[in-house]
Amino acid sequence: MTNQPLRAAILGASGYTGAETVRLLRNHPNVVPVAATGNALAGKTLSDIFPHLRGKYDLDVIKAEDVDWDGVDVAFGCLPHGTSQDLIETLPERIKVVDLSSDYRFRDAGLYSETYGREHIAPERTANAIYGLSEHAAERMAGADLVACPGCYPTAALMVLLPLVGSDVIDLGAIIIDAKSGASGAGRGLKEGNLFCEVGEGVHAYGVGTHRHAPEIEQELRLAADDPSIEVTFTPHLIPMTRGELVTCHLRGDVDQIHAALSRAYEGQPFVSVLPLGSPPPDTRHVRGTNDCRIAVFPDRAKGRVIVIAVIDNLVKGSSGQAIQNLNLMMGWDQALGLDALLPLFP
């Protein structure tokens, strides 16, 4: 515990992940938001933009150049890709950064450029950033200055796959990920595809065969398995709900070995539950509003195939909650600090 709380700046506080980070920090005894940036909405207060924060956080939203960085200890980067690195690379070196964008997730700046269509302005820094999948990077995060939080889809998929690819229990050449997310995963910007009439009463796939999160997932699997040939089939779908994410991983292997490997990997972890064999499939409602991940393993009727389902809240474990968990690990605090009191919002 610290004598004085860390002073946090929320970069891009006017978006969903920014607002969620602020909401979750309300429960944190060691961190207090002192600055909220949002260039397009500068001049408003956070509670003007997000009335649910009224009376809790009425911070003025200001432009990044108007922040008094001498009064900031840690920055949460809640900006879109590209915009995030452009700002983060101007911050004083002493400020710790937890970035929720994709800008520092790729160790290879060339792969970032290929995937996101722009050059990285700090290739050495992205090469050395910690990829912050909390349960799999805890030891590396202690004392880190920059942690890159995974995307929401990679978070859910890698929670299933990382314990398996290095334990010789699945066929590395037969990984299929069917993923579904609520509309908040696309951000708060005005886009035709996010309009109610476009999203409601239907489900559709997008980024079929081309989604940017596939290379991110492959990067981590290849490192874990020490196998640069691993490729995944990844198909995301947008479903008509606000928050929540469900991934179904179709694998080749033995159901008991897969369940045992996952159970061993997450034994004692505060936010991950591997359900007993025979349990009903997990539901996104079971983790809504929490930093939890629930995983269930099922035998497929097709011989030698196994189905593993994971659910998270894309705005919490898939974004802002994991960011706070990562800050806890960076600071040497209990990883559950400020997050352990969150119970699922049900119904």
Strand order of the largest sheet: 3-2-1-4-5-7-6
Structural class by SSE content? alpha/beta
Number of helices: 11
The assigned CATH architecture of the largest domain is 2-Layer Sandwich
CATH homologous superfamily designation of the largest domain: Dihydrodipicolinate Reductase, domain 2
Give the terminus-to-terminus CA distance.
35 Å
CATH class of the largest domain: Alpha Beta
CATH topology of the largest domain: Dihydrodipicolinate Reductase, domain 2
Low-confidence stretches: none
Number of domains: 2
Net shape? globular
Helix content: 25-40%
Q: Can you describe this structure?
A:
There is one protein chain. The chain is an alpha/beta fold and 347 residues long. It is 29% helix and 20% strand. The chain is built from eleven helices and 14 strands. The protein has a seven-stranded parallel β-sheet, covered by helices on one side. A seven-stranded mixed β-sheet has the order 9-10-8-11-14-13-12. The mean pLDDT is 93.
Give keywords.
single chain, Dihydrodipicolinate Reductase, domain 2, alpha/beta, about 350 residues, seven-stranded parallel sheet, 2 domains, Rossmann fold
